[in-house]
Amino acid sequence: MSAPNKSYDPVEVETLKPEEIERMRDEALAAFAAADSLDALHEAKVAHTGPASPLALANREIGALPPQAKAEAGKRVGQARGAVNKALGGRQGELEAERDARVLVEESVDVTLPYDRVPAGARHPLTTMMERVSDVFVSMGYEIAEGPEAEAEWFNFDALNFTPDHPARQMQDTFFVQGPAGDDAESGVILRTHTSPVQVRALLDRELPVYIVCPGRVYRTDELDATHTPVFHQIELLAVDEGLTMADLKGTLDHMVRSLFGADMKTRLRPNYFPFTEPSAEMDMLCYVCKGESVGNPDRPCRTCSSEGWIELGGCGMVNPRVLTACGVDPEKYSGFAFGFGIERMLMFRHNVEDMRDMVEGDVRFTRPFGMEI
Ligand code: PHE
């Protein structure tokens, strides 16, 4: 008969009894099954699988068992924990699927429901056009300058070398607010007929060199019709520095039309007269639609330029030395160039607007196709 196995000394550990392990497992399974939300399941998970859960504590007790009992107890606890984790994963999957299905229903949007349209405001295409043109020059270092719309006659005419008998100074062309000034009266007040008085203000106010661009509203006593409006917009540019020549003016104009109408654009100058520039020119840009190909080509007529190949933009020239002198600038040392053109006209040919009245009526049906840029 073999001797009793002295090394086997069963230790009764309460928590490792098979019934206890089963109870712990069953309680965990029941808790998971009863969890009706992911939050509740999380709580049950902490309680039944966390470091302080009965099964985790039982697992720790295994270490205290004699070697012979460890394997059996380890297997029992391991199986129970495996079953618990499996049940947890299963329930987690069920509850997540339930939540996903519910969210799909709860957060669905019925795109066919009627809704209240709240129209967003937007700036007028004339404003966006002026800003677009200004941006071309601002990116070259020009500053935006402004002046009053009710302007002294002196700024609008005298300083710009308009003689007292110039036709623009007559009542039929200009809105007079105060005046017209008599022979020895002080300068009257008019609504500015162009943005050029801002040239004078800029030269008087600023340090040289001056590089400014002035978008603004101007007034002339025209009847409102398809091609005239008594209130319209111009953009004026003035550069005064040492050594500026007509080549700088031409290069600046070419850069502007390339920026606004495309890389293959160019301008041309035709002789003209303005009292405040000498020499003066009319500036045309290549027709950006036909690029000149409609000229003498009846098979390919162009509506935009009336098959002339060029579109008239506005006036330009080298600042008249008399204007520089009137503004206290030494014409021996400084020279400059200027140009000005109408924004309404540019909007008309750029976007095929046929009637200028559409621009002043403020009907959103006109504005909307330009894009509601805010
Ligand atoms: N002020 C001129 C006009 O209204 C345009 C112009 C501006 C011409 C600058 C020359 C230089 O027609």
TrEMBL record:
Cofactor(s) the record lists: Mg(2+)
SUPFAM superfamilies: Class II aaRS and biotin synthetases, tRNA-binding arm
Annotated binding of Mg(2+), by residue: E278
One matching Pfam family: tRNA-synt_2d
Cross-referenced Gene3D superfamilies: Bira Bifunctional Protein, Domain 2 (3.30.930.10)
Aminoacyl-transfer RNA synthetases class-II family profile domain residues: 127-369
Keyword ATP-binding: yes
Key words, A-Z: Aminoacyl-tRNA synthetase, ATP-binding, Cytoplasm, Ligase, Magnesium, Metal-binding, Nucleotide-binding, Protein biosynthesis
Keyword Aminoacyl-tRNA synthetase (UniProt): yes
Record GO terms (molecular function): ATP binding; magnesium ion binding; phenylalanine-tRNA ligase activity; tRNA binding
InterPro entries xref list: aa-tRNA-synth_II, aa-tRNA-synth_II/BPL/LPL, Phe-tRNA-synth_IIc_asu, Phe-tRNA_ligase_II_N, Phe_tRNA_ligase_alpha1_bac, Phenylalanyl-tRNA_Synthase, tRNA-bd_arm
Cofactor remark: Binds 2 magnesium ions per tetramer.
Record-level GO BP terms: phenylalanyl-tRNA aminoacylation
Superkingdom as given in the UniProt entry: Bacteria
Group of enzyme by EC: ligase
Reaction(s) catalysed (UniProt annotation): tRNA(Phe) + L-phenylalanine + ATP = L-phenylalanyl-tRNA(Phe) + AMP + diphosphate + H(+)
E.C. no: 6.1.1.20
Subcellular location: Cytoplasm
Primary residence: cytoplasm
Family: Belongs to the class-II aminoacyl-tRNA synthetase family. Phe-tRNA synthetase alpha subunit type 1 subfamily.
Subunit comment: Tetramer of two alpha and two beta subunits.
NCBIfam families assigned: pheS (TIGR00468)
Protein name (Swiss-Prot/TrEMBL): Phenylalanine--tRNA ligase alpha subunit
Organism annotation: Streptomyces shenzhenensis
